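Handout, page 2. Input:
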Amino acid sequence: MIVRTLEEVVGTDRDVRAPTFHSRRLLLAGDGTEFSLHDTTLHAGTSTAIWYRNHVEAVYCLEGRGRLVDAETGRSWTIEPGLVYALDGHERHEVHAETDLRVLCVFTPALVGAEVHDEDGSYPLLAPPPAAAALGPASPEDRYPSRRAPTPSVTARLDPVVYGRPGDGPLDTAHLGDFDRDGFLQLPPAFDEAEVAAFRAEMAELGHRPDLRRSGRTVFEPRSEEVRSVFEVHKVSDLFAELAADERLVAVARQILGSEVYIHQSRVNYKPGFGGRGFDWHTDFETWHTEDGLAAMRTVSFSVALTPNRAENGPLMIIPGSHRWFVSCVGATPAEHYRRSLRHQEIGVPDEDSLRRLVEQAGGIRHFEGEPGSVTVFDCNAMHGSPENMSPHPRSNVFLVYNSVENPPREPFSAPGRRPTFVAAREVEPVRPLAPSPGARRAGPAPAGR
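Output:
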């Protein structure tokens, strides 16, 4: 017998938020039932387009008022307490919430718990993840154990993806939904040619500064002495400090994370032509959690293109929807691991079986191409990497990581010591956004797509 209260679900991984609704998932596939049961509130003034092609759903209204519209026939019904409807024909439909609309939903097959709506409004048909391997001693606060088990595991994400709402910043409901579903957004060029030219000149100067090389902030390619990355650029460059505080970036970060933000990490990635080594598949959160002590997935990364990003020069690749799963890795973290991992990472990378499963579940891999000045925003737990640059043209980017001030770093969860502050900040100082210069581009975000 399963006995569970709503209060026991609130604040756990079963407490799921999306831009238009808030769902408390009382029963899921892991409970052994053949259906899942959800206590869901659709937010007042929102509309949600839905098509459950993989599931049958029954909905019973408990509180509030709204409207149900059959998207194929146009027929509509008033939703009010006491009404039940069942989508036994997998009908495409829309739910318009006139007030906060609280409903009880039953799904069959049962949901696993990490599902979010696809582009067409459906939930993917997922198999429950395998049980986590037996782990060694862990801190009670460590909800994402990694690097302590003899075998890898895949478990559902326990944190929201989007913390803010449409009115909190420049992203509308559709774009927040895209980010929540896919784990990324690609924005159109936000910086003009003059701004990008200044960034490139600054990048070149930083790559030659002896003091940065002596400080350890400069990282070299593993097979040459060409510069791979320079870290903490917002602290060593006034120009990149202004970029990190640019309202066009900070407003999006604060909206997604639902709070003030600070810079956890900044760097320039040079990726020179003819041999700029790629970055192996990984999630940033796995490292930031195990080595920097970030407890929650409440961090977002911005990659600002300084050169054209093309298929041939090693562009960013992300597995859509992978941010919904946490892949634990094997292998203990050695002391001062950063010295080796920043050149070529071997500890903290996922196993091939887990990667294969994520790709099959997503239906592919997204490659990000774009013009200089374009911006890619992605979740800290998105599985990503990039291939080696075999072209003569560099693929250079400024990389800015914003973390919620409500998610400060703790002691590392699975490492013998802290990384240097130029790699992972320990000071939680909120970014004060700066308005862009007059005439600067203010283009809104483009849909993420697949």
